[in-house]
Design goal:
With about 300 residues, the protein is of the alpha/beta class. The protein has helices at about 70-85, 100-105, 120-135, 140-145, 215-225, 245-265, 270-285, 295-305, and strands at about 40, 45-50, 55-60, 60-65, 90-95, 115-120, 155-160, 160-165, 170-175, 185-190, 195, 235. The strands form two sheets. Strands 1-2-3-4-5-6-7 form a seven-stranded mixed β-sheet. It has a five-stranded mixed β-sheet with strand order 8-9-10-11-12, with no helix packed on it. It has eight helices and twelve strands.
């Protein structure tokens, strides 16, 4: 294997990424991924930390890249990184954890012959909502330059619930467990390494951000309950710092706490907007080491809508 390298999605125009160390560091806002920045997470899995974090799974016969970065220039950075980590002539695969531009809009930066794989639900969401989100992200001048001329690009392979890639000596399980952050969230599990690339579904002390109109904390919790039996030892979130198995119960406990408090206020007739303000204020003290707690009122509103 040739190793020339040594070693925010969360939604709309929220620019969340991470510094190059753990534990969590102050968020940075540069939408351009760094060159020469791959680091090894587990025997077969590498990561480029940025906006977003990029996963690369390298086997003897194939390499899987997870997410593209924002626009083709970032996609080309990721493709060069994957090539540097891979044996010559390696088959290249690409999958995307969800349809948001920093995760999927760099597809055109990958070389011809790259095999793109997505959940069928995510592909439909990309076709329906992708252009609108590209326009939203392009309101930022820096992002506009990276997204100029970008469109919605289709996958070569679609799947319903799961798809397993045999990369040679290592497998990548592409899994769709249902809606959480978006309707089409995908997670990727590498069983030989006990490593989960978790998209926006499992984050490291980053407040869950519910984007799709019909998503809710209840649905997100149901997805986490399907992820938990995988028992990953390494977790690579799309945004923020790396983590271990503790991230799944921590994320679940946050969502259960939010849902429980929201439903208690709803049962007392408190309007959703007021409940969101109350819970957000409380959570900023209760979860002081979490990022993006401005998402809390939106999650409360989704809880109210999910329990008419």
């Amino acid at each position: 294997m040739h190793l020339r390298f040594v070693a925010l999605g969360a939604g709309l125009l929220l620019l969340l990424t991470t510094a190059f160390a753990d534990p969590p560091q102050p968020m940075i806002t540069d939408p351009m991924l760094p060159e020469h920045a791959a680091r090894q997470l587990s025997p077969h899995v590498y990561v480029v930390m940025g906006f977003p974090n990029i996963g690369i799974v390298v086997g003897r016969r194939g390499t899987l890249v997870i997410d593209t970065g924002l626009g083709p220039r970032n996609g080309a950075v990721v493709a060069r990184t994957a090539a540097a980590l891979s044996p010559p002539g390696q088959k290249l695969y690409l999958t995307t954890t969800h349809f948001h531009p920093e995760h999927a809009s760099g597809q055109r930066g990958f070389p011809p012959g790259t095999i793109v794989i997505r959940p069928r639900v995510q592909e439909a969401e990309l076709e329906a909502d992708g252009p609108r989100f590209l326009a939203l992200f392009a309101r930022s001048p820096r992002m506009h330059a990276l997204l100029e001329g970008v469109g919605v690009d289709p996958a070569n392979v679609l799947f319903d619930r799961n798809y397993t890639l045999d990369l040679g000596g290592v497998h990548a399980r592409l899994l769709y467990f249902g809606a959480a952050h978006t309707r089409g969230d995908e997670v990727i599990f590498v069983p030989e390494d006990s490593t989960l690339i978790s998209g926006d579904v499992v984050q490291n002390h980053l407040s869950p951000n519910i984007i799709c109109e019909t998503c809710s904390p209840r649905q997100w919790i149901a997805v986490l309950d399907q992820i938990a039996p995988l028992k990953p030892q390494h977790i690579l979130p799309d945004h923020g710092a790396l983590g271990g198995p503790e991230l799944i119960p921590e994320e679940r406990a946050f969502l259960v706490d939010l849902q429980t408090r929201a439903l208690a206020l709803k049962s007392r007739g408190v309007p959703a907007a007021e409940a969101g303000r109350q819970i957000a204020t409380d959570f900023k003290a209760r979860y002081a080491d979490w990022y993006s707690l401005d998402n809390v009122p939106q999650s409360v509103a989704h809880t109210y809508a999910d329990h008419p």
